[in-house]
Amino acid sequence: MKIRIFESREECLNAGAMAFIKYALAHPVCTIGCCTGTTTEPIHEMISEIYRKNPFDASGISTVNADEYLVPKGYDKGNVWMRPRMQKSLWDALGIEGDRANMPNCNPDDWDAEAARYEKRVRELKVGLQMLGVGPDAHLGFCLPGTPFKSETHVVAVSPTITEGIIRDEGVDPKWGPFYGITMGLKTFMMGKMTMPIVSGSHKAEAAANAILGPVTEDVPASILQLHPDCTWLLDKEAAEGIIGRITPDGVRIK
Asked: H or E segment at 86?
């Protein structure tokens, strides 16, 4: 496990953007795991801005997204959810479309069948670089504390915090709840050849410290990354508050 700490949020996110581009340039035909969220979407925007100024060959890039909301049964206001955010922040700029732009279907007839289909698709594509946002409770995707490490892509009831986001950001009436989503499982995330969790902000410092230095436990979903053979954490200084002084410069834990 490698740990890189940056002075500012911008430097941290820029490092994530450059890691995406570096991987794509080194692997012209590749699959990169992406997420939506307050940490990763700005990274997508940075990638898009760099691409507009200095175009590179993106024709062989496929992406797989970690999760997607599910349209409530009977909801008739359209499929709004997270796919448009990926199109706006990354896909449209890089020309990623069709079967190269992968995300769970937000409105399938059979939710569980869609989860199984998506798991199969992720396995077929073989993720090379899995980029991950990490939640304040160390969740990955919609895999909240308590999610089994052996979990694959599955349907899950989303957390109250995510529910608030659906109501606020998507303008959905609370009466349509409880809300659900499809998420890649923790076992699925671990299939990426390389993993890169990216954490920004002091409100995530405890989660980062628990995931990096604490025991490997299902109570801390991101702690499973300690078991990954090629994992590089990117943290800004605020997110690293809980580990600074507890690791050596080369990322080795101080006993």
From this structure: helix 83-86
pLDDT digits (tens, 9 = 90+) for 37-53: 889 999 999 999 999 99
Instruction: Report the C-alpha gap between 157 and 111 in whole angstroms.
Output: 12
Cβ–Cβ under 8 Å, residues 64 and 125 = yes
Confidence (pLDDT) at 255: 46
Whole-angstrom distance, CA of residue 228 vs CA of residue 40? 21
- For domain 2-236, give the fold: Rossmann fold (3.40.50)
Contacts of residue 84, defined as CB under 8 A and 6 or more positions apart, other chains included, come to: none
Tokens 């080369």 map to which residue?
Answer: 250
CB 119 within 8 A of CB 183: no
Give the pLDDT confidence of 92-124 residue by residue, as tens digits: 999 999 999 999 999 999 999 999 999 999 999
**By C-alpha distance, which of 126, 116, 145 is closest to 62?**
126
